[in-house]
Amino acid sequence: MRLPGQLILGAVLSALFIAAAILSLFWTPYAVEALEISNKLKPPGGGHWLGTDHFGRDILSMLMVGARTSIAVAVVAVGIGMAVGVPLGLLAAANRGSLLDEVVMRGNDLVFAFPSLVIAILITAVFGPSALNAILAIGIFNIPVFARVTRGGALSLWTLDYVLAARVAGKGKLRISLEHILSNIVNLLIVQGTIQFSLGILAEAGLSYVGLGAQPPLPSWGRMLADSQTLISLAPHIAIFPGLAIVLTVLGLNLMGDGMRDLLDPRLRRIR
Amino acid sequence: MLRFVLSRLISLGLSLVVASLVIFTVIEVIPGDPAAFMLGLNAAPDTVAALREELGLSGSYLSRYLAWAFGMLTGDFGTSYTYRVPVADLVGARLWVSLPLTIYALILSTLIAVPVGVLAAARRGGPADFGIMGATQMGIAIPNFWFAMLLVLIFAVKLRWFGAGGFPGWDRGIWVSLKALTLPAVALALPQASILARVMRSSLIETLGQDYMRTARAKGLTQRQAVLGHALRNALIPVMTIIGLQFSFLLAGAIIIENVFFLPGLGRLIFQGITQRDLIVVESVVMLLVFAVILVTFLVDLAYAVIDPRLRRAT
Q1: pTM
Q2: Which ipTM score applies to this complex?
């Protein structure tokens, strides 16, 4: 059942939303700041493909700009997680069993005890809500994830003959980590990056839904859902489209991640 | 086994100390003067001084941390600045909404996921497996709070089977209260059940390929007996890890979902605390959430050792 079709569908869905986000930099059907109260809560159709919200703003335009917010937050958060987590994981694996390894792994366990929502609550309580704080919260949450994946992947590589050969040839741990280990776990990191990207989009939506993420007037999918909540029985479309946007983006990224994993690591194909 | 429990207990204690230090530092050290922060920019100096006195901010960071930590051990969480009542009372009432909701969702998620995962593994490659994998792929992608909104739209607004939100209180009867928590619990449980079912499936498939399964069949057990008697127990170990991890996701999810259903739980308390800059409430609730997560991790570790004696020797 794991055909490359999954990968293609995932890639197409993801590309669609990334394209919408990029397009929104130059063009949206309507300006997202354009309030037209007389035109509020219009159902889909007519001039507005997906209808209008309670301020008469065009929902399609809001979704496009919201895609930008979500994708930007998730991408930077993955970047933070990788930039800190991967070196930590490499170091821990290179010095397996040392004090450093122990500290990195215990530190990991500790961060795991703080769900990204709790990190966001802590940061927001002190610095106030913003998209930047959402990025930080999700990014910090990503660090142990990448540290763990990197360490796990690197540990199995350190036992292989070619790494031993490199050691015999006189290469140091740092150089081996960078030249031989890192290049061989790139697959793992890309797959994990895709998964964390999709989790980041879900987390960003949740955070901005409860008011800990992007603040108005910056459109974001989570905020659109929060705004729609009291109007859902009156105009269901304003709640349904932002939710669908989240689901399709996350679904696309997950399908793409699974597809890539199967493609890059054929051994897994038997199990799944 | 005793040594194992002891070593786990020590690491539980250490985690709690470090976590509480982190929380204390973020909330009480980074803002500089918490009293001035809580009162905002326009506060008169003597009001700030009075609050500083009330919060016990005069001592060093270390003495304040120790006072806070030992206070919590004895159930004293300090006094809420906005509500003027002990935080322990505020938290106590709301904990009885958030915690039952989380546990309700955890039970639902497990009850759905394990049979579904086993079914998919048993029918691997068939239409049932294909359908389950497709449905769980969808389930993972759905944000629980949006799912919750759709449930309200369908079951509360259109069909009127459930109330759209609110919580009657446990003293009004267990069934009424459980009914009020049902839609939120379903909304929380289904996305997590999707993940769990996938883990259950792949874990069982892996176990089914083991040599001892062939031995079990060779000694005359039916496939069904072999799966239920031998494979399931072994396949449940990774599933338990995920259930443990899911507790923290469900607890965090419960805090978000309370907003959809207007439930008077910890989520409402903490978000009000943030907007009102009631740092003492935020600090205590965050510590409580982290404590719950660390405690569950500890319990899962112990449960492992009960299920799998091989793990008892591990540090």
Answers
A1: 0.86
A2: 0.85
